[in-house]
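Researcher: Here's a chain I'd like modeled. Treat it as a single chain, no partners, no ligands.
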Amino acid sequence: MDIQKKLNVLIVEDSLASYKAIVSVLQNFGFSIFSERAEWKSEFEQRINDETWDIVISDFYLPDFDGRYVISRVKEINPELPVILVTEFLPEEAASEFLNLGAAEFLPKSSIIKLPFVVNRELEAYRLKQSQKKAWDMLVHGEELLTRSQKISHLGHFEVIFPEKNTLWSLELYRILGFDFAENPLMEKVWALLDESEQDHIKVVWSDLLRDNHSKEMIVTLNTKSGRKKVNLWLEAEKFEGSRFRIFGTIHDISDLSELEHSIQLNEQLFKGIFNNSSQAIFLLDLQGHVIRMNRNAVISFEREETDVQGLELIRSIFSNSDEESKKKLTYGMKLALKNQSFEVFVSYNLLDGREKYFDCDFYSLTDTSGKILYIVLEAKDITEKIVLERAYAQSQKLEALGTFAGGIAHDFNNLLTPMLAYVSFLNSEWSKGTTNEAIQKSLPAIEGISKSLDRAKNLIQQILTYSKIDNSISKQLDLRENLLQVLKEVRTVSSNQITLFTDLGNEPAYVNADPIQIFQILSNLYENSVFALQDIPYPKITISLSKVLYEKSELLHVGFMKNTEYWKLGFADNGEGIPTEIIQKIFDPFFTTKGGKGTGLGLPIIYGIMVKMGGTILVNSSIGKGTEFDLYFPAWKAML
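Model: Modeled as a single isolated chain. Structure tokens:
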């Protein structure tokens, strides 16, 4: 058993049935459970103090106390220990209150199926915090030791970033040079302390560094306010992308050489190693929330250069495009960190190109030995792939459940329709003989209307049955391009001739492994959807394209759960009115339709289910007033077998 799946859980619950249900759903997910149940307040107090728990799951309404007390007591004993409320009859505003008090999550008992995902997320975050706390303790200790060591050994360092010439001096360098700490750091001020001959030499060395990536070490003399000092000057140039580079250097006062030089270098490397090699994105902030440093993982995850945001306020720069709710959470986390309290928050983040990411963020403060807060730290874990997978899994489960339910009802209803259609047919046959009977003549239109309604009902039932049997397909290798041409030939004969059709299908066969009937369903449904969207457009246009794409060079890279390396991308684009943002997330939900009585709401859910079953996916992009494009990705086969 994976140690990450072992779980010590305290379940505060007065219902034995609910307790067993919680244990069962966690075990079914793969957790190895050690659990105890606390029903009364005295039992809870004993167990919360006696055991080392990974997580606490609690009902809200308990015999002689409530969930509010559970949250406050747990946070008092162990502020980092996650508490999940699983209850019913709790108003939404009350749930928000308890989340602000420190509860990790609130779930209705009717949604207990989501509990394993929440527990897995919180358990991972809790264990990560424990390991990161140890790392940060080492980091703070290493930085403190580095500062003290520099002071003892009289070693100062500086950095200059080009082309901006941004310059940084360490505190010890100010002391060595004899400058006040308020002095603006400029390397020209350092060179002015050199003897004239050494000034000429340093200019040559500095010019060489600006041209090449190399290091240089020399012994020079500085004429400081406190007297002449012999120092070891070490310089190193480091080039970045484009024309950007930096020069890093140290000035070691060797007038009274110390033996601490080796330990200084060791601790400096320790500081850099922990910070830059962390698996999390880390932002080091000042007490006003301005970005001081960001590690390598932060640059990669947030796709922002450190020099672009250094000195700027975190929320107004990095998270400027995030939603208002995320900004409020981040602001609240910053305030708690200033009170020396840790805070965890889930936020969304919009990249500059419009893509959305999700991060699990932790705020906490770094203090000196006296407890004074020096910095605020934001650690962010990229959980985008996990969120995408959870959503895909939830959609899949919903489709499967609805398919099974709808299939059963449709089958029984179809059995009822069969005799009704037979009776109507019988009436038509019998009553057509009495053409002279006036009463019969008057009722014939009604019989015809009933017959048409029954036909429509039968067609609807057939679609529901098709939806519920998405998995019952017979796949074979076929040419998607050839099938598309055949479908277009058939549907164009019944569609409006006013629609202009543009196709860019290439000449290469597009081999995929699929059910031909389902391929016809997909292509015809998409075409008819586009035709419907264009019925009121003055110059309707449909553009259909087919091309092969690589996974790592397409938007699939951000979907997160695709397995193939090559896909056939089929694009259906129209110049209709577009889909409003508030409903675009619902278009793949079964029975959701914007066509009124003309649609069943099963077309797109059927397409989604078929595509996922094939190992592909369907993505949608829509702009109001410009149109909608559906992109379907089919796993590609190189050749027919």
